[in-house]
Amino acid sequence: MRELVFKNLTSKVSKKREVLLEETIHENGHVSKILKRSVYFVYGVRTITSPLEFQEWVQKQKENSDNTGRRYHILKIHSTRHKSDTVLCKAKGSFYVVCGMDVYNIVYVHSLRMEIANEKVG
Which of 7, 28, 41, 122 is deepest in the core (most CB within 10 A)? Predict the structure, then answer.
């Protein structure tokens, strides 16, 4: 048996969008749960007035980019008590969207959680 839950939440007040997909599979005495979540925030907006200003802004962003930080996390959990294995993966970062004369800085967090456990009887 397979169950799917999909949520698409948007908040104009907090400038946030969240997309959630949860999948549960019951098969051969095991339960597999997969949770995929993506959260996007509008971190800042800048209005560009000329193509020259846009080129200067792009050059400044290239110079100030920080690629030295750790932007992903992976964690594996094994539980003998619950007889389950779980893997957690998280990635975070940012990108820019140009719409007309506005440049939006979008920050995102993607997470993936996979769990396999024995199905409880009784």
Answer: 41
Q: How far is CA 100 from the centre of its chain?
A: 26
Predicted pLDDT of residue 111: 95
Cβ–Cβ contacts within 10 Å for residue 95, how many?
10
Q: How far apart are CA 56 and CA 14, in angstroms?
A: 30
Alpha-carbon gap, residue 58 to 36, rounded angstroms: 32
Cβ neighbours around 71 below 10 Å, total: 11
Picking from 97, 107, 103, 99, the residue whose alpha carbon sits closest to that of residue 53 is 103
Indicate the domain borders of the chain: 2-118
Q: What is the pLDDT of residues 37-58, one digit of tens each?
A: 999 999 889 899 988 998 898 8
Say how far apart CA 112 and CA 78 lie, in whole Å: 16
pTM given for the model: 0.75
